[in-house]
Amino acid sequence: MMKARVTVTLKTGVLDPQGKAIEGALGSLGIEGVASVRQGKVFDIELDAGDEASAKAALERACERLLANTVIENYRVELV
Amino acid sequence: MMKARVTVTLKTGVLDPQGKAIEGALGSLGIEGVASVRQGKVFDIELDAGDEASAKAALERACERLLANTVIENYRVELV
């Protein structure tokens, strides 16, 4: 059983209203110095695969087809 | 300006229906071998702070007060 972490983040230039809201809320809570916040998603995945290469290939397919919207998001696959 | 990544994940034992749905969807898409999926959040934060220690302290305060629900979630702060 392999463990992987997939991180999906917005591409540079894509607006992130949720991140902006968090930025404002942190200021209201008195947490100073925050210049920007951008929110993304993380998926911790356990999978059975013959080897690292086939695990990575399956995870990349998962990102392209379901986990990320590649028009506006980048993804990164790490085996952990 | 410092850059940090905050990762918020569900604690072990907390049900993750969204992760379960993704698990099922990956199977339907023909991506085999996925045993479990758990979804979390990631925040990429830029902040001004005097030094690493005060940046970490501010980010931990942000997690405790806003970014994580510490009843059901763990958080991890990394300066990148």
From TrEMBL, chains A, B:
Its EC number is 6.3.5.3. GO terms for biological process: 'de novo' IMP biosynthetic process. The keyword DNA-binding does not apply. Keywords: ATP-binding, Cytoplasm, Ligase, Nucleotide-binding, Purine biosynthesis. It holds the Pfam family PurS. It is found in: Cytoplasm. GO terms for molecular function: ATP binding; phosphoribosylformylglycinamidine synthase activity. It catalyses: N(2)-formyl-N(1)-(5-phospho-beta-D-ribosyl)glycinamide + L-glutamine + ATP + H2O = 2-formamido-N(1)-(5-O-phospho-beta-D-ribosyl)acetamidine + L-glutamate + ADP + phosphate + H(+). Pathway: Purine metabolism; IMP biosynthesis via de novo pathway; 5-amino-1-(5-phospho-D-ribosyl)imidazole from N(2)-formyl-N(1)-(5-phospho-D-ribosyl)glycinamide: step 1/2. GO terms for cellular component: cytoplasm. It is an enzyme of class 6 (ligase). Part of the phosphoribosylformylglycinamidine synthase complex involved in the purines biosynthetic pathway. Catalyzes the ATP-dependent conversion of formylglycinamide ribonucleotide (FGAR) and glutamine to yield formylglycinamidine ribonucleotide (FGAM) and glutamate. The FGAM synthase complex is composed of three subunits. PurQ produces an ammonia molecule by converting glutamine to glutamate. PurL transfers the ammonia molecule to FGAR to form FGAM in an ATP-dependent manner. Belongs to the PurS family. Part of the FGAM synthase complex composed of 1 PurL, 1 PurQ and 2 PurS subunits. This is Phosphoribosylformylglycinamidine synthase subunit PurS. The lineage of its organism: Bacteria, Pseudomonadati, Pseudomonadota, Alphaproteobacteria, Hyphomicrobiales.
